[in-house]
Design brief:
3 strands; three-stranded antiparallel sheet; mainly alpha; single chain; elongated
């Protein structure tokens, strides 16, 4: 599958491939406005690149205004797996920033996406910011009664926050893990 996708990608423009790589980081479905923010490009310019990807039968409209999705999950997975580690981390950081810009509410459905992207991006810095979003996701999981997920996210907050957490925060997080 990766070879077939790689062959299709070679036929596309480099800008289109970059758009698909950014979209693959977001998941199977992606809003074009968020991808445009990730790439620091106008939405209209990205729509032309999406048309190129649609012509190659790699993506399709998903019914939401400005929403698209990969035709096959395997295609998205192959594009993401072909990324180098540095590119993957850079794109996760860009995704976190773009999602914050578009949906930055401290709680709600996007908090889990933000936590996922910040967890990967924390490798290159902003560990406290990453830990903050992961903690919010853990708290949201607790509200949704997803206790195992909440415990995992609270532990991840401890791991990523590391030395940037003071004793009181560490204690509070350890208690939250126990409660979850």
């Amino acid at each position: 599958v990766q070879d077939a996708i790689a062959k299709r990608l070679r036929r596309l423009s480099p800008d289109c491939v970059g758009l698909l790589e950014a979209a693959a980081i977001l998941g199977r479905g992606f809003p074009i406005a968020v991808v445009a923010s990730m790439l620091d490009r106008p939405v209209v310019e990205c729509l032309a690149l999406v048309d190129e990807a649609r012509a190659a039968r790699l993506v399709e409209a998903d019914g939401d205004p400005g929403g698209y999705r990969f035709v096959h999950a395997l295609g998205r997975d192959a594009i993401e797996q072909a990324l180098g580690t540095a590119d993957r981390v850079r794109l996760h950081r860009a995704a976190a920033g773009a999602i914050e810009q578009h949906h930055g509410a401290p709680f709600g459905p996007h908090v889990f996406e933000l936590a996922r992207h910040w967890a990967v991006a924390a490798v290159v810095g902003e560990r406290a910011r990453a830990a903050g979003w992961i903690r919010r996701a853990a708290e949201e999981a607790m509200r949704r009664l997803a206790y195992e997920e909440a415990a995992r996210l609270f532990r991840q907050t401890l791991d990523i926050g590391g030395l940037e957490l003071d004793g009181e925060d560490r204690c509070t997080l350890l208690l939250a893990v126990g409660m979850a």
